Amino acid sequence: MHAATAIENKITTIVSYDKDFNSIDELRRIEP
Q: pTM of the entire structure?
């Protein structure tokens, strides 16, 4: 999922191994 798509759709938490999502303040990343 693209970060911009998640933010546009008001998604605040994603499940991913990709640590690059940690740098996006609007998203919280959880490892599977």
A: 0.74
